Amino acid sequence: MKNFVLGKYLPLDSPIHRVDPRAKIAALFFLIIAVFVPKSWWAFALIGAAVLLTVFLSKLSIRFVISAFKPMLMMLVFLTAINIFSIRTGDLLVTLGPVKIYSDAIFNTLFIVTRLLLMIMITTVLTSTTKPLDLTLGLEYLMKPLTALHFPTHEVAMMISIALRFIPTIIEETFRIMNSQKSRGVDFEEGSFREKITAILSLIVPLFSVAFERAYELADAMEARGYIPGAPRTRYRTLKFRASDFLFMVLAFLIMAASIATRFIL
What we know:
Helices cover about 65% and strands about 5% of the residues. It contains nine helices and two strands. By secondary structure, the protein is mainly α. The protein is flat and about 70 Å long. A hairpin with a 2-residue loop joins strand 1 and strand 2.
């Protein structure tokens, strides 16, 4: 939990940090589409190379990016088990008693795991190189056409940015509560199933209490600063779209187009 990195902003000086948040959000959208469309390893290699180049340009350490995978390990293991035991097409590879593993199960599992890892890397780059306030402004700007339908774009963008901002905070609080409970004799690792459930409850209840307390404090702070939902707002800092930002977005779009093309060509 201590190494949970999703939503954690790193104040570094890199070309990716200086990219306009609107361009980064649009690039994220294009790359997510590119990840889900292809059925070719060449397309995944292209996307992976682009993501690794972006990580290098953003000056993020490989250890930092890899640490983003840790919270998803259980989910990856679960998906792997479900696919291997449920897919019954392709060539029979291994027979372990009543369990039979087929080639399509292996390939489909690899595709799913690759897609998830690429999505985590892309999202980690976005949140670690973009300030929460800039992310709010970028989301609000991109959703601006929805205001014609009376959609609360600013409020939705604010909620998304606050949620991303408080993920590391909640993780830190969880770690702190776990240490406090361990000092009182609570064991989260050993014991019977009933004892483990009791230990988890001793963690969840104070965690919810802390989360609500933080929410009330944030609401009071916003009210004290005169925040009124839906009211016209002025901005101290405005976003400026540069030629390099447009190029960044176009490159992400080209990667998406190439990924879609591989589905029909390869």
